[in-house]
Amino acid sequence: MHFVYVLISKFDHMLYIGETTNLNKRIDRHSKGHVPATKHRLPLELIYYEAYTTSKEAKRRERYLKGGNGRAVLKTQLHETLRDYDYKYL
User: Fold this and answer.
1) For a designed S-S bond to 26, which of 13, 20, 43, 64 qualifies (C-beta 3.0 to 4.6 A apart)?
2) 87 and 76 in contact (C-beta within 8 Å)?
3) Residues 87, 81: Cα–Cα separation, whole Å
């Protein structure tokens, strides 16, 4: 399986969107500060993920969610969750 996931930083309340084939291992690497993009934003929490059967589908979805329209859709979909985390850009 291929996963697209969304983390929120409890430090700066920002989102991080990524793609992986091993969700548990990837979240562990983020949590331990081994991912350069998020190591200064710890602690992080997984708030959403989707599973895909192919890498191509997962990467396409990741690109979409990182873009303007996709990020807007994600914010709408996760509105209650983001509000609970004091997300800055609702």
Assistant:
1) 20
2) no
3) 9
As to burial, measured by CB atoms within 10 angstroms (0-12 exposed, 13-18 middle, 19+ buried), residue 29 is: middle
Tens digit of pLDDT for each residue in 23-60?
A: 999 999 999 999 999 999 999 999 999 999 999 999 99
Q: Which two tokens stand for residue 30?
A: 């983020």
Cα 41 from chain centre: 13
Cα(52)–Cα(10) distance, rounded to whole angstroms? 27
Which residue, among 28, 8, 22, has the nearest Cα to 74 in the 3D structure?
8
Q: What structural domains and CATH numbers belong to the chain?
A: 2-84 (3.40.1440.10)
Beta strands in 1-90 (DSSP E): 2-9, 15-20, 44-52
How far apart CA 12 and CA 26 sit, in angstroms, is 20
